[in-house]
Amino acid sequence: RVFFFLMIRRPPRSTQSRSSAASDVYKRQTIDGMLFDDKRNLQNLTDLIVSQGDASSSVLKYLHNTFVKPDFDIIVYESCARILSIVYSNIQNPKFDRSKEDFLSLLLNIAEQSGKKKISEYCLVTCFVHFLKDQKTCVTFLNNNGIKTITSNFESHSTDLQVMYYNILCLWLISYTQESHPYFVKLEYKLIQSIIDVMQKISREKILRVACSTFKNLSENHDAVEVMVDCGLLRIVDVVVRGNIKDVELKEDLEFLGQLLEKNIRILTSFEKYTKEIAAIQLEWSPVHSERFWKDNVKKFEEGNFYYINELVKLLSSDKPKNQAIACYDLGEFCRFHPFGKNVIEKFDGKEKILELVNSTNSQVRELSLIHISEPTRLLSISYAVFCLKKKKQNYLSLYYCPHHMYIL
Questions:
Q1: Rounded to whole angstroms, what are the CA distances from 302 to 309, 310, 323?
Q2: DSSP assignment of 181-231, as one string?
Q3: Hey, what's the torsion of the CAs at 91, 95, 98, 103, to 10 degrees?
Q4: Which tens digits make up the pLDDT trace of 274-305?
Q5: In angstroms, rounded to a whole number, what is the distance separating the alpha carbons of residues 370 and 354?
Q6: Could you report how far apart the first and last alpha carbons of the chain are, in Å?
Q7: In whole angstroms, what separates CA 390 from the centre of its chain?
Q8: Are 330 and 365 in contact (CB under 8 A)?
């Protein structure tokens, strides 16, 4: 214990010279490695800190002060972050709960910063792994928008093996808490879809193992299983199972998921699923946005004085191009299959809003708005939308003169 105290206590100096900074880097890197290499060292340091009474102990105070001071090298900050994270994760004394949560919040604030950060995303996500081993800390992580940090990593580091491994490892740890399950099914976070995308991009066993373990933890959540089916997880599982998987536990998890998904597959043209997307104000290209769905369900949209058609018209003003594009498509299909579709859309001022989207800067929105300002004839054997999409290389203005439709205008 005396050794640890001497290793992390900087000798008093009047100035912060280059040699002094180098000495600090050396000491913190040394402790960092020692804690990870031998759990006995970690336990000795933890016992020392707990024996000092609270979070204001000289050891923790010194590390905290070093971490918040400016003008240190990134290596110093990252070493301090890792040491504090692993130490806090090993302390079970309630006296340290407040300081533990405060430091986690500090790391999350750093993660939300734009531009160059004090420590890298890789270091941050490895630190989160230590904290998320505790269920109480998991709840703190969720309440402080920690999921946004996870989703941000998926967007910016989707092909980085190490970052993705620890990112999914965080989700696996979080998935043990019931409070986390709603986050997995919310369309705005796309957690399940992001994990599946990583499984496709980085087909390493370590990625597959932690991803399958996460899905297994969610297997009793019906909504989560439905999202897995929607995102095509069964197809990925089938491909992986046929590969040369050496890990016996991974094979068992894959077989379990395959059986689970096969039991839960159903025709995804359900009106219930469609209403969930509308309620979440997040439309996604899926089987519910198809000709078959509208043929089977168009009459259901009469409920509540065409409530969901009105909501679709509102989504034409969304700031998300995907919402606008899908709303254009769906309104066109409604108009095509409902005998009074034209009048209903005009009632909610949908025609004018679609016309405004003809000048959209997004090509998909522009194309679908052009397609669905018209009502295709009911004699046409294929969807007018499909016909026009096949001709998308032609000039958009030529769509106005297609002989197979009547204008709404």
A1: 8, 11, 21
A2: HHHHH-TTT-HHHHHHHHHHH---HHHHHHHHHHHHHTTT-HHHHHHHHHT
A3: -40
A4: 888 898 888 887 767 878 789 889 999 999 99
A5: 8
A6: 83
A7: 33
A8: no
> How far is 344 from 337, CA to CA, in rounded Å?
12
Interhelix angle 39-51/18-37, rounded to 10 degrees, is 110
Across residues 51-76, what is the average pLDDT? 79
Name every residue whose Cβ is closer than 8 Å to that of residue 369 and which is 6 or more positions away in sequence: 324, 328, 354, 355, 357, 358, 360
Measured distance CA(89)–CA(102) in Å, rounded? 13
Q: pTM for the full model?
A: 0.65
Contact (CB, 8 A) for 185 and 224: yes
Residues in the chain: 409
| Tokens found for residue 290 | 């198809």
Read off the pLDDT band of 18 (50, 70, 90): very low
Name the strand (E) or helix (H) holding 407.
Answer: strand 405-407
DSSP states along 2-37? HHHHHHHSPPP-SS--HHHHHHHHHHHHHHHHHHHH
| 354, 372 Cβ separation under 8 angstroms | yes
317 close to 353: Cβ distance less than 8 angstroms? yes
The SS3 of residue 247 is coil
Bridge partners, residue 374, by sequence? 407
Q: Where are the beta strands (DSSP E) in 256-400?
A: 374-376
Nearest Cα residue to 312 out of 282, 278, 288: 278
pLDDT value at residue 371: 64
Q: Specify whether the CB–CB gap between 81 and 127 falls below 8 A.
A: yes
R_g over Cα of the chain: 28
Residues 168, 294: Cα–Cα separation, whole Å: 37
Give the start-end residues of each E strand in 55-167.
Answer: none
Residue 220: other Cβ atoms inside 10 A: 10
